[in-house]
Each structure stands twice: as C-alpha cells, then as structure tokens.
Amino acid sequence: MTDLHLSLDRSAGRLAAQIAAGFRAAVRSGRLTAGTRLPSSRDLARDLDVSRGVVVTAYEQLTAEGFLIARRGDGTRIAPLARPDEGSGPPPSRPRPRPAERPAEPLVLYDLTPGQPDLSAFPRERWISAARAALRTLPHDALGYPDPAGVPDLRAELASYLGRVRAAHADPGRIVIMNGVAQGLSGLLGQLRADGHTALAVEDPTSVRQLPMLAAAGVRLVRVPVDEEGVDVAALARTQARAVLVTPAHQYPTGVVLSPARRAALIAWARDVDGVILEDDYDAEFRYDRDPVGCLQGVDPDRVVLLGSVSKSLAPALRLGWALAPSFLAEGLREHRTNTDLGAPVLEQYALTEFLRGGGYDRHLRTMRRRYRARRDALAGALAENLPGARVHGVSAGIHLYVELPGGCDEDEVVERAARAGVSVAGARAMWSPRRAEEAPPALVLGYAGLSEPRLVKAAQLLGHAVAHGDGG
Ligand SMILES: Cc1ncc(COP(=O)(O)O)c(C=O)c1O
Q1: In a shared domain, residues 343 and 401
Q2: Cβ < 6 Å from ligand 1: which residues?
Q3: Which of 92, 221, 322, 363 lies 20 to 30 angstroms, CA to CA, from 315?
Q4: How far apart are CA 161 and CA 151, in angstroms?
C-alpha cells in the first residue's frame, strides 16, 4: 500500500483501522483536501488487495468522525472540515493556506516512479536476527571509533561477495564503505578534481537525481550520448574528459547493457588517456535473461572504480554502499571519511556482515529476482496490450523499464493525465541534455518493483487510457 502513501502492515491485523488512520493522516497533512473524491469501496478494496468489507468499515468510521461525506450519486468525498491539527499545539510559524485554497492533489494509487525496490519486502526478521547476532558477539572495543574505511569484517565479506557475484577483482584493502553510491561519487570527484581533473563525462540520458550532486563537486559535466550499445566511446574520446561515470550493467535510464565491443573500447579509452572509469553498479543484482555480466572493474582494477550499495537490493534507507577502487583512490576515500565524518555507523556494518556471512543476502536476492521477473513480465505484457505503439526497452535487467511512447504523444501531458488517473510515472525528458531532449522520442521510465502483478496490469491499462487521450477511467 506504499503507493497510496498509507502504510498497511498485514501482519498487524485491523486493516480497516489502518486504512482509516492512513486517510486521517493524509487529511491532516493536507495531502487529501476537502472535496476530493475517493475511489469506490469496491475499487479501493481491489487496489489494496483487501476485502470490500474492510474498506466499507474504514469509510463508515471516517464518515462517523466527520472526515468523509457519503452522498448517494456523488460517491464519498473528503469533508470540508477544518484540519484537525489546526488550533491544537503551538501556532504555526507561517500562516498556512486553508485547505480549500490548495489545489487538490490526485491520489497516487499506482506509484511507478523509478528508483526504489519493493520496500515492503525488506527482510525485517532476518535483518533483526543479523543485527542481534552482531551485537551479541561484538567485542566492546568494536563500539569505539571505527576504521574510517569500514569495519574489516564487512570489507572481507564484501570482497568475497563481489568477487563471486560481480567477477570483481576484490581486495578488501581497496574497499571503502560509503553511505551509498552517492557519497562514494562525491568523495571520488573531490579527489579527481584535486588530481587535476576538470571535467567528468556523464551518460546522456542519465539520472537526474545525481546531476546536482555531480555539479556540486565542482567539475564540468560533459554529456556523452548513449545508443543501443551503451555509451558512445568514440564520442567520449572526442571530449577533453579523462574521467567518466557509466552504468554498464543496465544503463540508467534506458536499460541498455553495454555491448562487449563497447566494454573493450571503454577500457582502451581509459588506458589511452590515462583516465578513470566510475562504474555505477546500482542495480546489477537483477539480471533476468542470464547471469549478470561481470563488472568492468574486474577487467581493469587499476582504472575502474566499482560503486555499489544495498539501496536497490535491500533498502535505500540503510545508506550502506561501497567503493572498490585502485589503491590511490581507495586511500583517498579513506582519508575523505577521516576528514569529514570518521566513518559509517558500525552496528549497521556488522549487521550487513552477518547478513552476507549467513547467506541471508543471497537468499533475499534470489527471492527478489523471482518476484521482480514476474512483475516485469506482467508490466511488459500489459504494456504490449494497452500501449501497442510503444517501444519497451531495458527488460533484461534492473527494476524499471524505459518506454518510448508512440510518435506524436506529448510526454508532459501523458504524465499529467496518468497522475489524474492515480498513476505516478516519471517522464524521461529531464534525464536528457537539453540538446538531445529535443530529438529524443517522448518516453516514460516505469519502476515496477513495488507493485503486484494485478496492480501493474491495472496501472498499464490506465496508462493506455492516458496515452490514448482517454479519461483514465
Ligand atoms: C543511477 C543511480 N545510481 C546511484 C544512485 C544512488 O544510489 P545510493 O542510494 O547507493 O546512493 C541513484 C539514486 O537515485 C541512481 O539513480
């Protein structure tokens, strides 16, 4: 139920009470405004995969409390009541607009925005067991300031995992634990700049979330086109950059897997210009048609930095990642942590160590791979049926699809119409450089990790309506 922005914990029971609490919170925060029409109890029950009686009970409770108004022929709407949190507690520091003055935000029933795994699948019990086992056995000394590069046990486990699963050339001494790929990148860019790099080549299109962070590192960003084989190495060679950030296992966002010829050309380029390749391995665990292709770092460990994290495999909230780097860069990253934050939280590092050591991580990945494959199949099949003119890319790996819309579609309009129908999706245009965005076909990037198959099918039907200028119903 995360895509309704309400949290439904099935193991906790009292589903009607949970649904009611979620709606109350949405009204209080102003996310649902007076007059907003709610889905019928039948539709909502189907969307949330609960019995209709559960939703009816929740609606009745909220109606009795004055949150909802139900009128025959007009469905159920949010009542025009003052927000319950107004008037209680200290006055807000700034006057807030009255609910009636806010534009009503559409309810997100199907959240296909990319970038997150299925958060409801986080292995809470097994993570608790790993954390408990770690705490039970940790010597007191381990609770002091850690090695800024990360606790040695975790680096050893990761080296073994990355060697086995990603064919990395993994030496624990070259691993530095970072708060995700993001922190690894900003630490590396600071160093590259200090070493005389003035430019960083970045794929075009790329992740918009990363762009401001890269720009903040003070290097000039040079965009290099991606085609059906991945990053265009000949175009890269025509730039002044000697450092490049790439996503070879599953290009973000197009989903292209870097071809063998381009992999070889990229390594040759790095050797030729005495350059560095930053390999963002953000979702490489999920490859469906074959075993994952080994990482580039395994081919040239002295020129490639492998950056990974548990953000897509477990949860972004853990903020746990790693950089496997040539010795001089690994040493620099260690220094970076020494000079900025003295290292990553220790208990989480030991919990992950236990999780890797006990086989929990491998087991979780096997389960998620099966689940995501089924979801990918459901979404790809439903898109073929409901958006027959669209071209779907990136199906072989990852947890999102890149969907080129039929010619003549207006991407912004499709995104907006989809949102009005309750389907939240990302348009691709912002991911392209302004110059290439003009030529790029309209496209959507659809994250499918968090929705069940029936819900993905329904979302694809609604998207089909949005693309066909329908009313989304
Ligand atoms: C392509 C890509 N790589 C990496 C990241 C950051 O991942 P992490 O959570 O490991 O910092 C993002 C975040 O949006 C991303 O889009």
Answers
A1: no
A2: 115, 180-182, 207, 209-210, 247, 252, 280, 282, 309, 311, 316, 321
A3: 221
A4: 16
Q: Is residue 116, in this structure, part of any structural domain at all?
A: no
| Atom from ligand 1 closest to the CA of residue 253 | 1
Phi, psi of 156 (to 5 degrees): -70, -45
Note whether 428 and 443 are within 8 A (CB): yes
Tell me how far the alpha carbon of residue 252 lies from the centroid of ligand 1, in angstroms. 10
Same domain membership, residue 193 and residue 318:
yes
Same domain, 268 and 165: yes
Pick from 203, 213, 226, 282 the residue to mutate for probing ligand 1's pocket: most ligand atoms within 8 Å of its CB.
282
Of 51 and 301, the structure prediction assigns the larger pLDDT to 301
pLDDT band, residue 181 (cuts 50/70/90): very high
Structural domain of 73:
2-102
User: Regarding beta strands 230-231 and 220-227, do their DSSP bridges make them parallel or antiparallel, or are they unpaired?
Assistant: antiparallel
pTM: 0.80
Check which CATH number belongs to the domain holding 279 and give it: 3.40.640.10
**What distance in Å separates the CA atoms of residue 391 and residue 441, rounded to the nearest whole number?**
10
In whole angstroms, what is the distance from residue 214 CA to residue 239 CA? 18
- Pocket probe for ligand 1: among 311, 318, 348, 399, the residue whose CB has the most ligand atoms within 8 Å is 311
